[in-house]
Amino acid sequence: xxxxxxxVLPPKGLLQPLAVPERLLLGPGPSNVPPRILAAGGRQLLGxxxxxxxxxxxxxxxxxxxxxxTQNQLTLAISGSGHCAIEAALLxxxxxxxxxxxxxxxxWGQRAADIARRLGASVHELLKPPGEYFTPWDIEEVSAGHxxxxxxQAGPGVSHLPLCFTQGLIRHKPSVLFIxxxxxxxxxxxxxxxxxxxCHRHGCLLLVDAVASLGGAPIFMDQQEIDILYSGSxxxxxxxxxxxxxxxxxxxxxxxLRRKTKPPSFYLDMHWLANYWGCDGExxxxxxxxxxxxxxxxxxxxxxxxxxxxxxxxEHHRVNCAQLCQGxxxxxxxxxxxxxxxxxxxxxxVRVPEGYNWKEIIAFLTDNYxxxxxxxxxxxxxxxxxxxxxxxxxxxxxxxxxLHALQDALRCCHHSKL
Length: 418
Ligand code: PMP
What we know:
The chain is an alpha/beta fold and 418 residues long. The chain folds into two domains: 24-32 and 309-412, Aspartate Aminotransferase, domain 1 (Alpha-Beta Complex), CATH 3.90.1150.10; 35-144 and 163-308, Aspartate Aminotransferase, domain 2. 35% of the residues lie in helices and 15% in strands. It starts with 23 loop residues before the first strand and ends in a 6-residue tail after the last helix. The chain binds 4'-deoxy-4'-aminopyridoxal-5'-phosphate (PMP). 4'-deoxy-4'-aminopyridoxal-5'-phosphate (PMP) binds next to helix 3.
């Protein structure tokens, strides 16, 4: 029935059926969701305090402890994407004026520095060009600067970056060091050995981003003395985006307890989340209506990882990445990360070949092969193509498919208008 009350009509687009094409997601994430995980997310809802949901959360907690290789009690999933986990980590740890050291060799360090600055931290950046990693020496003392290349361009809110020499733990005495294990914008796998001990020697907590690497490359939270570790649901775990595993060591938990001020977010306040996740020994209380279906999916993603076994998962990713790298070289493409040991097994970067427009290559793969790969991001934008093989998508068959599609693209897109 027509009515004069409504000034905004039902949108025409919404009256059409939902359109979601089939696509093989071989970019830096998300990766395709296998039927078991999709089905879990499609189950009927329950309430956020129903015992069956609390049980699923308990399953998630032990699944994360396994994936992270940690016994930390303060282990849970944030209701939000990977960015939400970066914010949760920093805003619970950092208070106004706290010195924070951020290792920046790609976009994730840039983003962490931006977030820490918004929290009023005194942020110092250690800079490396995209494609490179940090040695313990870089982190402890002096990292020789590389001049004002494009990689030192400031992100939003990042105004004064050092151009020549940056200094590390000794000079700045930070309370937290942020570093990225799997730098998905550049394809670098950061070696973590010894960093936890080093940080602790300097009274600093080690915060590691493993969104793009968890399950694809070895990481041992307790043995490597990592204090805060977080990841995402949509990469190797093959669940939809929207929930982010995170864990805090006893050192990190105590630092949160010693805060003089409340964390500036209620939603991400770790006191509340610890209680809702049953980490504090108190009766569990409602905090927010969690993304319950996302938790069902995350549970199944973690269950599949547990069934496969971490070591098998690392090995799959290693072998398929090696096959991909060899195939890319055979196509005449140049790998962006020079040293094999620091190549991220989940996301491989190749330089955009001369005489090609990277956007055309990507569009060609989407249009002709229904395969999604990606261009660079942040400091690697325009320089690289990124090919992801994560979780169930990391198969020899998918390597063959993407190599075949790229070979065709290299034939058809040459001498495109640049
Ligand atoms: N860190 C890394 C290493 C990532 O690859 C990503 C996602 N590409 C994020 C953080 C942010 O995660 P999200 O997009 O889920 O917010």
